[in-house]
């Protein structure tokens, strides 16, 4: 379960971790459905769709989008075909980070877009930490 | 322009106006792009897509979704064709309310789904009032 | 959670309840994702997509597809717009039945297509009963 | 023809061949339409779409998805264009295996996703063997 209060705490910590560039961030539940979203002033229009596809791709493949992007760099044709087969549910770049329970179960994911992939992922990880109360 | 701070104030007021049923609410900018979204605990999965389509339909047609729904009740074939032609960007039910400037310019819209159309629209109107500082 | 063993028990009971006409039946988890599916010999080709859309619509709207169909009969334009807005995730006919926990939480849904809507729904209900061990 | 009983025997043998990682497996008929599907506990959400696209791609191109993936590695632009042209009906990775009659006619295909491509293909081949009664 992904309660709105926890998703919002995660979203706020994600946004607070943004640096120079404005970002968009989304929190999805375990089924890949949106719970909370925000786009900072100045973030460009595709940021919503990219953030969502990073987070949804992480849930769909069962690993962070940074790892998926590494695999895609070695096998681009397959991951392009997955992107198409899933209707664009996958963005092949860091910034989609799974939220797991203590037992390893996927509870949801945070997706970020707007800065470099590395900074996007750092922001999302700040959100995951806030979700777990590690503030 | 739809600053995130104003969109969030509108979103929070919208959520606070919810009654018995949990809702999902979204704030779109003048281009129809998401700025802020939240889904309350227990709201069913399509609420995101329906809230978004109510708000986007309002911006796309230039009137609140309640008025669009009234027109659609008299002319369903046309509005169904618009729904298909726009790729599902329109939900024919109250709950999508335009945010306008003092001069009448469309600044964005709020979309709500989860309760009856009338209550959804009341929640969205509370959000518009908060946007304008009429609290 | 929707374990495969429980989904299969539900699916088999659903299929066993079919009468004259061959059916297709699907079990979805709480996020609307397929866990188990079977199409009986002679069931026509759209049965998969219709069964899935009945079950997914039930999860997405939070009520059985028979109730959704009743509402759609009174308000067809809105439900057509929802079908389009959700990318065809909704089939407006009986045969999609929610699976709920004792506490009322949605655990998934069963969707059936192939016979009349009433018989489809009866088959799905047999599957829900099997899921709960009410055999 | 792909009778449900034979498809289920193939599906069960496919699932039984899974090793460390949970898989999803699907059996399609000669027209590319689903007959039977199951997702093992813990398999991530995209496994359905990927398994289906592996099997459908095999039927659509007339060869196992491992061979298609080999061709795609040498000519990625063409196979990406096929994935788009067919609306995502193709996954460029091993794990989609044709089921042929003694005379070479395509009767259907099995698609598997969840483990490495090689193991996915081994699982699917176990399913094909079971279909032919070579148990």
Automatic annotation (TrEMBL), chains A, B, C, D:
Annotated SUPFAM superfamilies: GlcG-like
Gene3D superfamilies named in the record: Haem-degrading domain (3.30.450.150)
Domain of life: Bacteria
Pfam families in UniProt: HbpS-like
PANTHER family in UniProt: SLR1406 PROTEIN
Protein name per the record: Heme-binding protein
Lineage: Bacteria, Pseudomonadati, Pseudomonadota, Alphaproteobacteria, Sphingomonadales
